[in-house]
Write a structure and sequence with these properties.
- By secondary structure, the protein is an all-alpha fold.
- It has one domain.
- 82% of the residues lie in helices and 0% in strands.
- The longest helix has 27 residues.
- The chain is globular, with a radius of gyration of 17 Å.
C-alpha cells in the first residue's frame, strides 16, 4: 500500500498519510487478536525496533529513497524465495527458533526501514514466518509489533511535519476502506488452513519485494 501512496502523492505527503491509516488498521487487528501474540518474540523484537526508528528518523531525507526501497525489495525476494524453497523441499523441517540477538537485529532493521519507508513489516514477516506460529499467533505478534512501531514513530512524524492536521483529515476520510480490508483479513485468517497460510504470506512478501524492485528500474529508465 505504501508504494501506491508515494506514487499517487508527493513523497512526504504519501509517507505521512500512510502512518495514521496504518495505526487504524493496527488497532483493529489488535481488537480481534488481543493477547494472542507470542510474548518471547515481542520482547526480542521491540527494543531493536525503537533503536531502529531512531536511526531511521535521522536518515529520513538524507538517503536516496529509490535506492533504499530497492534494497528492501531485493532482501524480501531473496529471503522470501529461500523460505519458499525450504517449505517446498522440506515441508516438515523443524521450525526455526527465534532468539534475543536475531530478534533484536530483525527489530532494528524493521524500525529503520519502517521509519523511512513503511516497509518494516516485510522484515518482521521474514523473521516470524519460519517459526511456524499458528495463524492467530502470527497475526497477533505481527500486529502488536506493527502497532508499537507505528505509535513510536508518530511523535517524530508530527515533529518533522510529516503528519499534520490536513493529513489526519485525509486519513479519516480513507479509514473506512482500511477497516473493511482489516475485517476481510480477519475473516480469511480464520478460514485458511495453516499449511496454506504460510504460502499466502510468502506470496505477498515476494509480490511486494518484486514491486519495489520494479518501481526502482522503472524510475531509473
Amino acid at each position: 500500500m505504501s508504494p501506491m501512496f508515494v506514487i499517487a502523492l508527493p513523497p512526504r505527503e504519501g509517507i505521512g498519510l500512510m502512518l495514521p491509516l496504518l495505526i487504524v488498521g493496527d488497532m483493529l487487528t489488535l481488537t480481534f487478536y488481543w493477547r494472542g501474540w507470542d510474548r518471547s518474540n515481542l520482547v526480542a523484537l521491540f527494543p531493536g525496533v525503537v533503536a531502529g526508528i531512531g536511526l531511521g528518523m535521522v536518515l529520513l531525507g538524507h538517503i536516496p529513497d529509490n535506492e533504499f526501497r530497492v534494497v528492501i525489495g531485493l532482501l524480501a525476494m531473496v529471503f522470501g524465495s529461500g523460505q519458499a524453497l525450504r517449505q517446498w523441499l522440506v515441508p516438515h523441517a523443524e521450525a526455526f527458533t527465534g532468539n534475543r540477538f536475531l530478534g533484536a537485529l530483525a527489530g532494528f532493521v524493521t524500525g529503520t526501514v519502517s521509519a523511512i519507508a513503511h516497509q518494516g513489516g516485510l522484515i518482521t514477516t521474514l523473521y516470524l514466518l519460519p517459526q511456524r506460529l499458528t495463524n492467530q499467533a502470527f497475526v497477533a505478534t505481527s500486529g502488536i509489533v506493527f502497532t508499537l512501531t507505528n505509535l513510536t514513530k508518530l511523535p517524530a512524524y508530527v515533529f518533522t511535519g510529516l503528519v499534520t492536521w490536513p493529513i489526519i483529515v485525509k486519513a479519516a476520510m480513507l479509514s473506512p476502506a482500511v477497516i473493511m480490508g482489516a475485517l476481510l483479513g480477519v475473516r480469511l485468517n480464520r478460514q485458511v488452513p495453516q499449511k496454506h497460510f504460510a504460502w499466502i504470506v510468502l506470496f505477498f512478501v515476494l509480490v511486494t519485494g518484486a514491486k519495489l524492485v520494479w518501481d526502482y528500474f522503472m524510475s531509473s529508465s
